[in-house]
Amino acid sequence: MNLNKVLLIGRLTADPQVRSTPGGAQVTSFSMATNRNWTDKSGAKKEATEFHNVVVWGRQAEIAAKFLSKGSEVYVEGRLQTRSWEGKDGQQRKTTEIVCERMQLGSRRGPSDSGSVAKNQGADNQSVADDMPVIDVGDGDIKPEDLPF
């Protein structure tokens, strides 16, 4: 049995790059960083950062291009793929990248936000309640065609 599976949660190191193939398929690529923290034998705290190149195809490529930017948090699930090509100087080049099969966007930060999604909401989340639509079901039965979604 063989398995080629990658799971990463990290932040983009630059804005995504969007391209289209000659056949019209959309492809988005970006680099992301992941951190690892540990304490060594002497008790000193250590940190290491790894950088990963990610390629996203199709509809997910459109979503990545629209909603991701430098610093965005993203969860990527995919597979490792190594490809090779000949550079402009005639030298053979190789790269290993993650081909994204599933992606989930992380929390969104505002310009003055320090990471808290609910920062601008009141203690009772009143602003969320104000934005939610009211569905009046009345006294009769609920029919699927009456639902707004």
Question: What does this entry look like structurally?
Answer:
With 149 residues, the protein is mainly beta. The protein has a domain at 6-109: Nucleic acid-binding proteins (OB fold (Dihydrolipoamide Acetyltransferase, E2P), Beta Barrel), CATH 2.40.50.140. The chain has two helices and six strands. A hairpin with a 5-residue loop joins strand 5 and strand 6 (92-105). It is extended, with a radius of gyration of 22 Å. The two termini are 43 Å apart. The model is unreliable at 110-129 (pLDDT under 50).
Write the layout of secondary structure elements.
Elements: E1 6-12, E2 17-20, E3 26-39, E4 45-57, H1 58-67, E5 73-86, E6 92-105, H2 126-131
Parallel strand pairs: 4-6
Antiparallel strand pairs: 1-3, 1-5, 2-3, 3-4, 5-6
Task: List the main descriptive attributes of the protein structure presented here.
2 helices; 11% helix; mainly beta; 44% strand; 149 residues; OB fold (Dihydrolipoamide Acetyltransferase, E2P); extended
Short précis:
This protein is mostly beta strands. Helix content is 11%, strand content 44%.
Strand order of the largest sheet: 1-3-4-6-5
Q: Rounded to an integer, what's the Rg over CA atoms?
A: 22 Å
Beta content? 35-45%
Could you tell me the number of beta strands?
6
Assembly form of the protein: single chain
The percent range for helix content is 10-25%
CATH architecture tag of the domain at 6-109:
Beta Barrel
What is the CATH topology assignment of the domain at 6-109?
OB fold (Dihydrolipoamide Acetyltransferase, E2P)
